[in-house]
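The following record pairs a protein chain with its ligand, NAP.
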Amino acid sequence: MKVALFGASGLLGWSIHHELERRGFQSCGYLLGEKQEKRFQSFRSLDLRNEQKVTRELLDLWPDAIINCAAVSSPDAVNKNPKLADEINVDAAQRLVEISAHLGARFVHISTDMVFEGRDEPYRSTDRPCPLSEYGKQKLNAEKRVLAATDENVVVLRITLLNGNSPRGNRSPHERILECIKNKDPLILFDDEYRQPCSADNVASVIVELLERPNLNGLFHWAGSDVISRYELGIKILDRFGFSSKYITKSSLLTEINRVGQRPSNLTFELAPLVGKIKTKPESIAEQVENLKVPNDLFSWYRMHADDPTKYILRI
Ligand SMILES: NC(=O)c1ccc[n+]([C@@H]2O[C@H](COP(=O)([O-])OP(=O)(O)OC[C@H]3O[C@@H](n4cnc5c(N)ncnc54)[C@H](OP(=O)(O)O)[C@@H]3O)[C@@H](O)[C@H]2O)c1
């Protein structure tokens, strides 16, 4: 099976690329920027806003499946330039599903828990979304356009906060925490902002399984098996790398809402029905944290500055 993978250089796309190769698929990865880095040499640069080029490329390639992980994926980046973000998060997603339908390819689109406002009980995929951020609104619009374009051979997978090892070492929560410590930047995390994180590798396994299961179509939820506050997750990350908890300042979303703006306080997912239909199991926080690595660029600094670097044992 030949798979066109958009966003291959991102946190999730990178894991999917490796999972596809591991399971014998032909992965054709795309990124936006130049592919100067050696690890991206097999990928192609293609701006998803360029309708003509995207169409031509996919007609030439004629893949059996298209996976869309390309996005402006942080709420802050979306707020800085909402129009540009909309072209990538919404218009490009619609273009890809339309081409995919024309090619008769399977289409997998990635969405987010940020389409919800964050109430107390776990969300089902049938619950009514109510995004608080522009990012959440764009992701919801994309979902609607993708699911309106076709009801065959299509999956929209909503996922939660991602742990993992990004190719550039700067995307996931632990990579940002280590960078903050290195730069002596303040690290303030809320103990009343709950998430149900999953790992990029685990989601990659789900997505590749979904490619192999053409009977599973529509909108699904996926997450890890544990719910945790952002503060507690930060403490577990510090512990995994042998840093003391003094680097994180505990705070409260409730009391800081005016400073940080409206954001969902409690985003958790009901994983049925998908969890009962596939082999991949949701991962615990402990499993996710154990697989985190110090980014290569930070390794020398890390050995010199961690309170107890002997705690960091790499699992091979
Ligand atoms: N990270 C999370 O915690 C999280 C949580 C829930 C849902 N999600 C969703 O999961 C998906 C993947 O997120 P991620 O964190 O892996 O994203 P990411 O690390 O920010 O990667 C984004 C990818 O999109 C590519 N891209 C950006 N603009 C593009 C354009 N105009 N044309 C072509 N490619 C473009 C980037 O290429 P370059 O590298 O060349 O810039 C990169 O490969 C997104 O849909 C996101 O909304 C993420």
